[in-house]
Amino acid sequence: MPGWQIHMKWSRKMGIPDDVGEDVNRIIDAWKLEDYPEDFLRYVYRTIYPQPKGRKPISLAALMDMFKSIHDLRKFKKEALPYFRMKGEDYVRAWYLHHLLDYLVKLRDWMKNTGESTKKCIDKYKKNKAVTLHGTEKQLVEVMNFLKDNTQELQKDLDLPKQERFEEKTGS
């Protein structure tokens, strides 16, 4: 995955305040609950899910710990996104930006082997990976368009293959 320097560079380039970018990166890349900022930690402990009859309700924090899904919020993206939506549009943009940058790095070898373009992979993120809630799709599209508008620099920063020239010539 890209380092925080790359995540922060792209956050700044998109106009996301540093404190927001740092908070979001810290939450997504945390390895244990104690690594979370205080307000997110309160959120995961206070978000409670009912259980079958006779069992106590369980917190999001307990579920995350039980499933060892702290880093990247693996199985709990849909449950965590309301926190970012509540914090504001910059937090939602930073959330999608972080996950999209990670996604593109994960696809780097596949892109090299198949010739799939960076822009097409960005478009596929929305269909294949993106978690959206009411009111967050606008920020997802903003981030996707921003990255597509800056494809050459993105390819350089993430060491992605450069197929765009071929696409432009063929109209694909």
Write up what this structure looks like.
With 172 residues, the protein is an all-alpha fold. It has helices at residues 4-13, 18-28, 38-46, 60-66, 77-87, 89-106, 108-114, 118-128, 137-149, 151-158, 164-170, and strands at 48-49, 58-59. A two-stranded antiparallel ribbon has the order 1-2. β1 and β2 form a beta hairpin. α1 runs antiparallel to α2, α2 (18-28) crosses α6 and α6 (89-106) packs across α9 (137-149). The longest helix is centred in the middle third of the chain and has 18 residues, at 89-106. The two termini are 28 Å apart. Mean pLDDT is 88; it is low at 165-170.
Index terms:
disordered C terminus, mainly alpha, two-stranded antiparallel sheet, globular, 2 strands
Please specify the SSE layout and strand pairing.
Elements lengths: L3 H10 L4 H11 L9 H9 L1 E2 L8 E2 H7 L10 H11 L1 H18 L1 H7 L3 H11 L8 H13 L1 H8 L5 H7 L2
Antiparallel strand pairs: 1-2
